[in-house]
């Protein structure tokens, strides 16, 4: 052996060790974030702040809550009136939102993508056969109640309520996503508007006050980024006059970040019936031929025929992951829509690789959550429009109330995996009977009953069928 080879091997090992240490240090903030998950008590959460604009309101949940700090996410809710426009903006986090009520249209401006929607008018005055484009822009997406919509990090976007009813959307912002390199909190950069026209109301006092500076910034609001540039720079950049440049800066705009469009928004889009047919019944994308510009940004998760779990006596669940919705691979997020009938039960379970944010949209349900020390950290009723965060691997059980319940879950992995404790596909069912008997000091007969009494997989009808001496469920 060449005498330098052992030295080279030692050098290789040393370099590998240094790279490993460097990698650990590089991810240190992530592990510090995970220390927030030593939770002894979880609370049902509601918005603590309302930001009122001309045509709607944004409700903000307390990002300082330990649950949110653990999951590294933030949640807001927009309520937009008919003909209300949420002004263009972008964020340092990916956004996944659920349309709780109403319908609308949305534009997401992706860099480098062509302006595929355009309208032209024939010019007859002094010209022969010429044409000129009066407008062209990137694709506009129609969305409806029950849709999940994805917005990549840093992509400018806007929303408009083109329906007759209030538009309500609940949005998850993943602050600790790998695509966010700014800081571990959500920041929105507006391209228009002025916070001076907003009215901020504190609904309730936050339970935690560690980040007072963030609270002050929230109360102050956010002005649009053009305000920070000089009028001369804007005028020169866009080749417009100073009056137009001043309007871009928005200093005299008192409407807030959701504004009324008096005569309705005039944009180019295909007939609704055609677009809805293309969306609902068109060929499914397999993810191979998709590009960023043509990638689907919304999927309906409320269609009963698309349910992944269905029990006529108990309810249904529809899961949305990156296999069904490829853009979720980039966002590293997923979702679940659940519907439970009266008193029906979801098998006790844990999510193996993600935090789980549960928001009730209709009715109520009792939720029990247990931590790694076997301690009950939550055992309460989650009412409509309340949410809880279930940290990764914490065990959770759900039971609907007398009127049934519906919920939307956001999960911090594009392919979140559930492991159940009871039912046909559960971990208990996978264990040998003798392991169960010895683990729980049961007779072989009782261990068999424990293992096989529930024949459903995940969604259980209430009451059960076992009436032996040890009682029902």
TrEMBL record:
Keywords: Disulfide bond, Seed storage protein, Signal, Storage protein. CDD domains: cupin_11S_legumin_C, cupin_11S_legumin_N. Residues 42-246, 299-448 form the Cupin type-1 domain. It comes from the Eukaryota. GO terms for molecular function: nutrient reservoir activity. Transmembrane segments: none annotated. The keyword Transmembrane helix does not apply. Residues 1-26 form the signal peptide. Belongs to the 11S seed storage protein (globulins) family. Seed storage protein. This is 11-S seed storage protein, plant. It comes from Helianthus annuus. The gene is LEGB.
């Amino acid at each position: 052996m060449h005498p330098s080879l052992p030295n080279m091997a030692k050098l290789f090992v040393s370099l590998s060790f240094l790279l490993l240490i460097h990698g650990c240090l590089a991810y240190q903030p992530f592990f510090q974030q995970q220390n927030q998950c030593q939770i002894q008590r979880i609370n049902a959460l509601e918005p603590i702040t309302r930001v009122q604009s001309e045509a709607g309101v944004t409700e903000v949940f307390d990002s300082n809550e330990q649950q949110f700090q653990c999951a590294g996410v933030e949640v807001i809710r927009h309520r937009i009136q008919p003909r209300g426009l949420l002004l263009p903006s972008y964020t340092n986090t990916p956004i996944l939102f659920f349309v709780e009520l109403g319908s609308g249209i949305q534009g997401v401006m992706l860099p480098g993508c062509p302006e595929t929607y355009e309208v032209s008018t024939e010019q007859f005055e002094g010209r022969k056969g010429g044409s000129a484009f009066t407008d062209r822009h990137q694709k506009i997406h129609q969305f409806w109640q029950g849709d999940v919509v994805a917005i990549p990090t840093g992509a400018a976007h806007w929303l408009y309520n083109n329906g007759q009813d209030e538009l309500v959307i609940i949005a998850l912002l993943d602050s600790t996503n790998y695509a966010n390199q700014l800081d571990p909190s959500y920041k929105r950069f507006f391209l228009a508007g002025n916070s001076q026209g907003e009215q901020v109301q504190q609904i309730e006092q936050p339970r935690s006050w560690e980040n007072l500076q963030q609270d002050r910034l929230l109360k102050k609001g956010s002005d649009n980024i053009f305000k920070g540039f000089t009028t001369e720079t804007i005028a020169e950049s866009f080749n417009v006059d100073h009056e137009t440049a001043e309007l871009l800066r928005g200093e005299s705009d008192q409407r807030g970040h959701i504004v009324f469009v008096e005569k309705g928004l005039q944009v180019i889009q295909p007939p609704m019936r055609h677009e809805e047919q293309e969306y609902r019944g068109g060929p499914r994308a397999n993810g191979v031929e998709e590009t960023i510009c043509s990638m689907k940004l919304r999927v309906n998760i409320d269609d009963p025929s698309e349910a992944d779990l269905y029990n006529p006596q108990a309810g249904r669940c529809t899961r949305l992951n990156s296999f069904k919705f490829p853009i979720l691979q980039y966002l590293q997020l997923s979702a679940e829509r659940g519907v439970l009938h009266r008193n029906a039960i979801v098998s006790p379970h844990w999510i193996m690789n993600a935090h789980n944010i549960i928001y009730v949209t209709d009715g109520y349900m009792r939720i029990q959550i247990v931590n790694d020390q076997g301690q009950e950290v939550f055992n309460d009723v989650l009412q409509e429009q309340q949410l809880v965060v279930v940290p990764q691997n914490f065990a959770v059980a759900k039971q609907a109330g007398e009127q049934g319940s519906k919920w939307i879950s956001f999960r911090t992995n594009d392919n979140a995996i559930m492991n159940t404790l009871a039912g046909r596909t559960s971990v208990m069912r996978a264990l040998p009977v003798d392991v169960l008997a010895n683990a729980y000091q049961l007779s072989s007969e009782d261990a068999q009953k424990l293992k096989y009494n529930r024949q459903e997989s995940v969604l259980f009808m209430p009451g059960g069928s076992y009436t032996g001496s040890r009682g029902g469920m």
